[in-house]
Specification:
Elements (H helix, E strand, L loop, with lengths): L1 H7 L17 E6 L10 H10 L2 E6 L3 H13 L4 E5 L13 H7 L9 H8 L4 E10 L8 H22 L3 E6 L2 H8 L6 E3 L6 H9 L3 E4 L2 H4 L4 H6 L5 E3 L21 H12 L3 H16 L2
Parallel strand pairs: 1-2, 2-3, 3-4, 4-5, 5-6, 6-7, 7-8
Helix pairs in contact: 11-12
This protein binds nickel (II) ion.
Nickel (II) ion binds next to loops.
Amino acid sequence: MAQLVARLDGIEEVAGSSPARSTNMLIDTHAHINFNAYKKNGDEVIKRALQNDVFLINVGSQYATSQRAVEYAKKYPEGVFAAVGLHPIHTKGKKIKEEINAWRNEREAEEFDYEAYKKLAQEPKVVAIGEMGLDYYHLDKGQEEEQKILQKENFLKQLKLAQELNKPVIVHCREAHNDLIEILKNYKLAGVLHSFSGRWSQAQEYLEMGFYLGFNGIITFSRDYDRVVAEAPLERLLVETDCPYLTPVPHRGKRNEPSYVKFVAQKIAELRGINFEEVAGVTTRNARELFRI
Ligand code: NI
């Protein structure tokens, strides 16, 4: 706690605290209602989440979706927050594959514009910088090294912004944990490794750096992360949906949404042999501490 208070020193604006609603409330720490998948009924989906005692953070993956995340946050007096950042698969020079285009619903590759994002990040309901990071799964053949360099450059700029504004980071990583850990070791930032996809030993490295680990619907249909979910300290876990993707069991095949985050919390409870209320209480407190909401 002392560390958290120290970090708050010098911050000009904080997100504004929101009272807890019930002991079972959850915070979906990684949602994308700001994506085109919700163009027609994003507000309906957000209202359903709030009615189910689920708060959410809409996470930007490009400037346009970051802006949209801020607009959504401004519309709601409580429970809806934003993160602004540039996802590694959208960095300049990336020849975005057609299926990625369709999947992400965004077309333009982009270079991180420090000043533009800085301005956006200073909106009062922006609680983090991200999503940012490294994604070596989506590299194009023959351009791997060049694209890795671009991803790293854009990642470093965002880490610098987080440091300057004293905000936590939301980090995406796919098949790049060793490089990512090397970079993060040089910074003293609070943050979450969202949709954690590494090994137990890598989980330990993130935990040692003070990071939280975010889990989503993947843990309801894959057994790959059971050990990390069961054995990492509950005080360091966050729940998320990464909606519209990664829909948890029992809604596989449907578009995901924040109100389904309860299935993730239920799975964590099952894997740890504890009750849902404990998972809800602790992970909500974790999210409130990290994002100061
Ligand atoms: Ni995401």
